Amino acid sequence: RYKADPKLRNGVHHIRGKRNALRKEGKEFEEIPPNGKVLSKTLTAERLAKLNNIGFVWKVSTTPRLPWEERFQDCMDYYEREGRWPPQSAGRLGEWVHSQRMHYAQRDANFMKYKARQLDVVGFEWTPRGNTRVTWDEGFEMLMDYGRTN
Q1: Residues 6 or more apart from 18 whose CB is under 8 A from it?
Q2: What is the tens place of the pLDDT at every residue in 47-74?
Q3: Within 10 A of 109 (CB to CB), how many other CB atoms are there?
């Protein structure tokens, strides 16, 4: 939906993810302690109200979820056919792949115990091609290089 603006897409994705995580904890928003700092990614009561007031859509998926095993098989079929893992842009299957990578990155205990092993066995790529992780220092150096040339 936000393909033309990746920053907006990522921001909306983060907001929805943050709300889902808070709801799993039984919370609607993040409490800020007195004299506490409000970070840019903090979902405060005020921010939640602002989003609700503009009609922010919290849940966009109306399609029924397929069982994990079916998505896994779809992923394997894609790999057999294309010779690579589905990119995030591959619709629902791409979203599923992204979700698996997120669970892995967060070291989700249930995921690591049961599902990560199945993906490991088939050689699943946990970091998409071209998206290798860099340390903060490496990223800062890249930013400095960019600033010197632009």
Answers
A1: 41, 43
A2: 999 999 988 888 876 666 789 999 999 9
A3: 9
